[in-house]
Amino acid sequence: MALAWPLDEDSFRRQFHPELSPLGWHLGHCTYTECYWLQEIVQQDSRFTAPVKKLYTPPLTPKPERGKKIPAPEAMKQWVSELQSMNYEALATPAASISEHPLMQDDYLVLFLIQHYSQHYENMVMVLTQQALAQATPDHPVEHPLLAREPAPEFCNVRAGHYRVGGKAPSACDNEIPEQMVTLGPYCIARKPVCNGEFLAFMEDGGYTRRGLWSDSGWHWLQQEKITGPQHWRMNAAGHWYGVGPRGGHTLQADDVLNGISRYEAEAYANWAGGHLPHEHQWEVACRLHKLEDSGRAWEWCDNHFYPYVGFSPFPYREYSQAWFDNRHYTLRGGSIHTRPAIRRASFRNFYTADKRHIFAGLRLVY
What we know:
globular, three-stranded antiparallel β-sheet, four-stranded mixed β-sheet, paralog of FGE (formylglycine-generating enzyme)
């Protein structure tokens, strides 16, 4: 709510990026989702969800239409506040019909909704970042220009062995369970993700123009999109790069963790640096062994597609994960500076297609 209320009506309704819904819709959708599960499913009461089901159920209203159909900010504020208060009271002193419902056991549904809010919170920060990018100008001052830095990563070794990965109910999502036993060969992984200065070195060495660094699909994407740098970077009139975040332009520090790149860019950088992206299990094992630093500064692209674990069962509904096991989505691990604590865990699996770069994503190398 605090992200949405300061905005004027245009900013509340506008779609700033084709992959992102208007900021006001995210708020309405989260409240609808809370009411859908707590009221319609648990209490069999659809009075407040049925009238807005079409608007806030993603497949039923295309993203470009959502901003025109949501209520005005003040009406939304009242609707959200009243419904959240109603749900809070129902949870504070739950009737038997609530406390005895299977979804309420071990606080599963409460944890599920908190994580749902957490994911949309980060999406809302993405919207604010896209708004700031749209307002960026070439006259932004850069007092300390970003300088390239040759990669000199510090690595740590992980021994070959059998390792446990995955999460446990009730907090884990369906795609994290059941826990798996995996066998890994020996590998070394960078202690830190790639930083801004290192990525600038890739750019200045012709990284975006050297065909040999890119996969066929990545090169085709690059030629179509004509990308020359991370999405959250802009160049001013003096030829200096600066970053853009949800609050506007800022100085890029060479040692800060890079974010705002697609998996295609991450893969090209890895080829340039002589390494490759980690399999998500390599990442998780190294994280659990406390070998990784800055693992929550940017989502980190992994080498593998998003896939179901052995024994996977969709829950609480099929589309939550199963629809994305399509060999098009890739896994990301770790979290960004905007990721809420509820989903900051070693086993959490994020997933996007390889072309997405509006997310706060970077990479870490393995050898």
